[in-house]
Amino acid sequence: MKKIDVVASATVYDDVSELPSDVQMLMNKAVEARKQAYAPYSKFQVGVALLLENNQIVLGNNQENAAYPSGMCAERVAIWKASSDYPGVKVKQLVITASSINSVVDRPVGPCGACRQTLSEYEINQKEPIEIYFMGAVGKVVKSESLLSLLPFSFDSSYL
Strand, coil or helix: what is 19? Predict the structure, then answer.
């Protein structure tokens, strides 16, 4: 038997103003997308902006449905839209912001497990990491150099 340690590293910024200007611009676009989320049940709104290698920016937001779990997370909305509109174009960066109508979200909100799994497939297929920045509505921003660092022991098509 052998024990291994799995370690993820991240950079934490105190707020959006510390981010590079190009990432600030992406985060502003994600905030605008977040404001358009359809979240009448949870009151939890998420917005995403993806920067593609062709410099196109693709937005997504969560879309709920009264028949839970028929809704869709913002991350999957955005990545599938990018893949549909720009097939084969690599994703360079992904930024996420989340807010709640019920309270102030003042800590970073990363992608859920289903979104991590979906995003990991795109990162694996493009053979390049996707930088991810995530935050709540205000406060600290976390940067991960790669989606796979958020999903150790990931499952991919090589197992099939």
Answer: coil
Compute the distance between CA of residue 48 and CA of residue 32 in angstroms, rounded to an integer: 9
**Is residue 131 annotated as a catalytic residue, yes or no?**
no
Q: Encode pLDDT of 47-101 as tens digits.
A: 999 999 999 999 999 999 999 888 999 999 999 999 999 999 999 999 999 999 9
Alpha carbons 140 and 107: distance in angstroms, whole number = 6
Alpha-carbon span 71 to 37, nearest angstrom:
11
Task: Please list the residues that pair with 38 across neighbouring strands.
Answer: 63
Q: Please, what is the Cα angle at 48 between 67 and 21, to 5 degrees?
A: 165
Question: Which residues, including other chains, have CB under 8 Å from residue 156's CB and lie 6 or more apart?
Answer: 120, 121, 124
- Which residue out of 64, 75, 123, 128 is catalytically annotated? 75
- Return the number of other C-beta atoms located less than 10 Å from residue 96's C-beta: 29
